[in-house]
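Sample entry (357 residues):
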Amino acid sequence: MSEMLTAQRELIGNLQVEFYQYAPLFDRGNNLGRTKIISWESLEVRKGEDWDFVVVNCCGYGDYCGSTVEKANYEYFMREWGDTPGVVEVYGGYDSHAVGLFVTDFLYLPEMLEQIAGLEDYPLFDDEELSRVEQEMIDEWWADNGQWDFERAIVTNLDLGDGGDCLEDVGFDVLDDDFWELFMEKLDDSNVEFIFETGCNLYIELDKVAAGVTSADLEPWIRGTVEREDKTSSFLDEKACVVLGGMEIVNLCPHRINLVNGYNETIKDWGPCLSPARIDTVMEQAEPIKYWGISIPVKTRRMGEVVNLPDRKEGVMYIVSSLVAELVDRDDLLLPEIMRDDNNKIVGCVGFITKAR
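Predicted structure, serialized as tokens:
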């Protein structure tokens, strides 16, 4: 063994690394006779002196391993030092990635080895890189399913009734950028934080964030609202009460109600109710589900009291959500009979359903 290789092994051997013997059976590419991407299957664990390859600790992540810290370290290191001869990516199942170093006669730069050694004192190469990785995860979460989950939590919390899980299904047009601002505002108010779990998974208690959203917050997105700079609703001056056939019918839903005929023409419409009738729900923590060392939260939901539902009054009927109509035994409550188009979007209601007298 050459003096340079001996010196190299001595330097690397004192770092926070794991030792392996490389067996080139599955790899491709070339880097000084070595590959730039190698598979975990090409590595055999070594505990003695018979090693020629190391994997750097705190610089690997995957679907079931590592955190945003390890991912940030990996991405920072590969960006700064990935083109250095002997530095490679170790790739494996479940989308796992790690930083690997071949022990060769080529002497690594002291600056690079000093950075690796520094992980023993502080397990992060760069704080800004961690912030970037976490923000990227949040952006991807919001684009993939976060906004939909947030809308669904709002629909559940405000008891918006029939029409599906999304706000679009219950009479709203949601604008992405503005809705993101609403989410961030309610996130700050709720003191809820994103939790970055093992495997670079993201978790947030959306029900607590959504609990801060009121019907008034949703006014700018009521379907058909004319957008203004102050984002106030064009329906605010409209009453949620219409007289039909001598009967006063009051809308107690937080969204607009359109009564249409067979040609999808509006016959009558009701403005949204800013204090809708709803069922209070109580959320309680239940036994979590354990999966691959990850604790998946589970909550139970039980129905509470009906709120904002007026007492029975002669000559008055109330339009309510399906949940309120189902749980309250009264024949003065009306449930909209929804009609949808070919794309499953709500056109309006063609009539009402009530309990038998």
